[in-house]
């Protein structure tokens, strides 16, 4: 538990015990989760911008990732099992870009860009197909 949370829980102004401590700690953890997810998403976006370079191609790539996973590297489609930023099916296909495909945004981005280039010519080709079909 971090020190600031401990100070809030054990504050001399308000002494919390038992369930109140657990509820306060759980609330703090739940409040931190969206911030952590947003930070991870912005890190992944920065990596993609650097890797892709061309702003138009990045925008197309970003549009797909926004729809497919909302920039969540752990996103899993419950019905198909598609995984990651670009929803590879199966996710293990991304191992061709690196053994850390489950946890590394750069590996998922590399695989996704290569897939889009191979199949659609570019991320914008993939985005054009996505817009027409709601999948790519």
TrEMBL record:
<dbReference type="InterPro" id="IPR008258">
    <property type="entry name" value="Transglycosylase_SLT_dom_1"/>
</dbReference>
<feature type="signal peptide">
    <location>
        <begin position="1"/>
        <end position="37"/>
    </location>
</feature>
<keyword id="KW-0732">Signal</keyword>
<dbReference type="Pfam" id="PF01464">
    <property type="entry name" value="SLT"/>
</dbReference>
<dbReference type="InterPro" id="IPR023346">
    <property type="entry name" value="Lysozyme-like_dom_sf"/>
</dbReference>
<protein>
    <recommendedName>
        <fullName>Transglycosylase SLT domain-containing protein</fullName>
    </recommendedName>
</protein>
<feature type="domain" description="Transglycosylase SLT">
    <location>
        <begin position="56"/>
        <end position="128"/>
    </location>
</feature>
């Amino acid at each position: 538990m971090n020190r600031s949370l401990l100070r809030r829980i054990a504050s001399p102004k308000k002494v919390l015990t038992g369930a109140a401590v657990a509820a306060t700690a759980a609330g703090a953890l739940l409040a931190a989760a969206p911030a952590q997810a947003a930070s991870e998403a912005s890190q992944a976006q920065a990596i993609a911008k650097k890797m892709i370079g061309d702003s138009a191609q990045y925008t197309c790539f970003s549009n797909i990732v926004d729809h497919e996973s909302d920039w969540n590297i752990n996103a899993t489609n419950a019905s198909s099992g598609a995984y990651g930023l670009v929803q590879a099916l199966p996710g293990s296909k991304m191992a061709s870009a690196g053994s850390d495909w489950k946890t590394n945004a750069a590996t998922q981005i590399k695989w996704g860009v290569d897939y889009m280039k191979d199949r659609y010519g570019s991320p914008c080709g993939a985005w054009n197909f996505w817009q027409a079909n709601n999948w790519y």
